[in-house]
């Protein structure tokens, strides 16, 4: 009884997390897998069709196009976000920087804005007929750029908006890790005559390995699941050239009323994210040994 009283609060908090996990992850995952084996349309009866949805999915060129665009976004997004986040963190952590508090507030503000609002802001900035960026270009004597009429230009805007919105969280992770690096390492390097670049390569980067692994893992998963920003910014356009995988699932399930088919696509995405996470954990585990 004494042990139970001692461990009461840990058990309560653990139990709450388990309940939330079962309610919002496990049960929806089981239902999603079940629906992926049916022809469920969101109404009426769900008839069992086995793996027909998966077979049809792997023959669907639109699915591969959306998946390829999502992978392209993740491959571009993660390294750029890593570099920008680390660069800002180093700048704010430097003893020579002024106005650090103001800088932290400015760089953190995008994290407080939802993806939908961020998409609206960037759509206003890069609007072809009314956008602020094109206004500046025309004032400088240039021609307006058709940002959302060209697939790659629209993709570049999505990429910039994604980095702008996601940098803050990763910056805070790096800032916290930088403050935990013992100053004695840098003092010893100064005595040996090491340059700033040498200290960054041989002290800072190795000390940031655990944080680097976490940032890359979370950024990769976040990029693969990007939806709200793209939906509000380009709606997958022009045409379907910038339709990401979550948009493909959304459009298939809610617009075309093919819930079973969309569930199969979501199960494939779940498997991809699981494999991606396991690979990164394995690589990260080796690097941190």
Secondary-structure topology with pairs:
Layout: H1 2-6, H2 8-36, H3 52-57, H4 61-93, H5 100-108, H6 115-126, H7 132-139, H8 151-179, H9 183-191, H10 196-207, H11 209-224, H12 228-233, H13 245-255, H14 259-287
Helix pairs in contact: 2-14, 4-8, 4-11, 6-8, 8-11, 11-14, 13-14
Would you write up a description of this structure?
With 289 residues, this protein is mainly alpha-helical. 74% of the residues lie in helices and 0% in strands. It contains 14 helices and no strands. The protein has helices spanning 2-6, 8-36, 52-57, 61-93, 100-108, 115-126, 132-139, 151-179, 183-191, 196-207, 209-224, 228-233, 245-255, 259-287. Helix 4 packs across helix 8 and helix 4 packs antiparallel against helix 11. The mean pLDDT is 86.
* Largest beta-sheet details: none
Multimeric status of the protein = single chain
What coarse outline follows from CA principal-axis ratios? globular
Helix percent reads over 70%
Number of strands: 0
Number of helices: 14
In short:
With 289 residues, this protein is an all-alpha fold.
Essential attributes:
single chain; 289 residues; mainly alpha; 14 helices
